[in-house]
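Two quick folds needed for the group meeting slides. Do the first one here.
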Amino acid sequence: MSTPLSSRCRLLCLSLLTLALAGCAGSTGGARPQGAAAANAATSADSLAQTSWELVRWTQTGGAQRDIPHGDNGEPVQLTFLAQGKQYRVNGFSGCNRYMGSYKLQSGKLFIDAPATTRMACVPPERAKLEADFLRGLTAIDTFTLDSGGAPRHLTFNLRGGDVLEFERRQDPPTP
């Protein structure tokens, strides 16, 4: 018979294993831009630099909307693109942990390398699953779209498995 403590330990271990596996994923393999604004953005690594995005909608294959809970402190799932010199980084909050990685726009495609994460426990199982799926999704982007080339407010990632992640632009980080 399981005790509440042993159940919590199993859940914690499962959460940590899920996060470790999510951090082992590869890169996008080159997400193709869709539409004029995304094609324009894909011509320069600086076009996404210093922008910050919040995940506002996750549509699963088949059309069902996935719940996107905020973190313990009310922090939303976020994606920030940063550039300093020749270093292009992504970072953000994935539901329970902070993550960081790199990105590049090359040959008209977006590449995001496997993000590394902090290792905080993520007790609610649905939030731990969302986090693992989100981090895995960042490395499985098939196509991306932007709503405009000048100052986009909406970013969409179409994942290889059919899910669609929609982001809205938030306050951009300061330019270094």
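Then this one, please, same format:
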Amino acid sequence: MSVNSKLYEGKAKILYATEDPEIFLADFKDDATAFNAQKRGSIENKGMINCSISSQVFQQLAKQGIKTHFIDSPAPNLMRVKAVKIIPVEVVVRNIAAGGLCKQTGLIPGTVLSKPLVEFYYKNDYLGDPLLTRDRLLLLELATPEQVDQITHLALEINKFLQEFWEKCQITLVDFKLEFGVDSQQQLLLADEISPDTCRLWDITQTDPENRIMDKDRFRRDLGNVEDAYQEVLQRVLKVV
């Protein structure tokens, strides 16, 4: 596939146009950032690992009837995706209290929530990706009321599947981030990626609160062995798909 101009470069991926205006090519990077890019670094082979994990998860979600932007993966760090206009809202689904939820509410880390919590964050680095109420989201016209309802429903459906999927991998899904986009047919699709960069994942076989971490928190908190943790997630995924 011939690649044309670079369309966008984010913290974790570079997006290229192709000869088909309906198809983009995503190049997954080894760069790592945290705390709204205040902390920067690199994780060896992260791009290939995250692309591989995301490719497998997207394919499993498709089998459940969840429509995504994934087409295929022509190389370990490359993903062909359907061209979508990203809705500038990060959707976070939480099953266990961790990270920002604990800082903002005082909940004890590790508290199992009575039901999944769906949150919306404005995808805006300048503003620090603030938490949005539904009314604020609609006030800013970031999505239509129908899209908000559809996204909420899909987020919970995806969470239900992912909890079961990660459990098969001997991993607990603590929380995760989703992004959605709209294609040329105005169809809502799950986009971005699902990987240790976007999910909090705890190793079920470990009880130590630091040793069990298998996601980007290892980078955020300088816990070390980041690539090993990412690689272990990939190996477990490949065993169950």
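Slide caption for protein two: The longest strand covers residues 171-182.
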